[in-house]
Amino acid sequence: MNLRALRSLVAIQDSKSFVEAAQRLKINQSAISMQIKALEEELQVALFDRSVRPPVMTPTGIAIARSAREILELLEGIRETAENTEALTGSLMLGCIPTATIGFLPNVLQAINRRYPGIHMRVQSALSEPLVEGVQHGTLDAAIVTEPAKLPAGLRSEIIMRERLALISAFDAGTPPTIEAILDANFIRFNRHAGVGRIIGRFLASRRIEPDEFMELDSIEAIIEMVERGIGIAIVPERPLESYRQRVAIRPLEGSDAQRNVSLIFAETNANVPLLEAILALFRQASGQG
Fold first, then answer.
1. Could you read off the pLDDT of 4-31 as tens digits, one per residue?
2. Whether residue 280 sits in one domain with residue 139
3. Where is the HTH lysR-type domain (predicted)?
4. Can you count the helices (H) and strands (E) in the chain?
5. CA distance 41 to 35
6. How many domains does the chain have?
7. pTM score > 0.70 for this model?
8. Residue 96 structural domain
């Protein structure tokens, strides 16, 4: 089985696009298409539903992509074990926004434990604003946050990933709604005091949309539960939705104002800066944008 085809399959799942996957892997789109076609012929299954445009991954394709990801991670672990990596040791207190604890953070911690077993991590979850304060006051070594519009003096910000917003609705509502449909539905708002909540607010304001704010929550799991049951619709970050694609209808939003930067912030004078710089690449790799 061709490992390049497995990497292409995983890249397409992460980017939701053959074009973006080709750009990420730095190969031609036609090459990716040929790899996927060869993989389908070898496995004798359809990995994508090509009756719609753009093609979407079939349930079988999703299951195979999950297994492909595990295979690639095992191979990466073998390579890392074989490398003569620097023996970094130390303890880090890391803050993390709740939306990054779904999917992303477990991948990060696995990668750090595998690559740098001498680094001991402790993690606490909070909204971006108190996490920034924690880094500023020294109670946290670093934090994964929605990048603030203005960073306090002395703090350094490194972008880990750029993440789109997505509009979600119940499956029984038919096709995913347009932005304008927010005006005719109960809108479940993401906490306006959260970093991503502010971005969502600015996005709606830029389009002069004033939704009927039926509910305001700061838990993405709670928001998804409400939406799944048809109680309302919502705008949330796209990445945490990966595990919920069989539960709600998802429409990614386009535009520079419909995305956020998720960043690692830390004080430039922190004694653990060498550790943080060493693991920064692992953060980006775990995001799929490294």
1. 899 999 999 888 888 888 888 888 888 9
2. yes
3. 1-58
4. 9, 11
5. 10
6. 3
7. no
8. 90-162+261-287
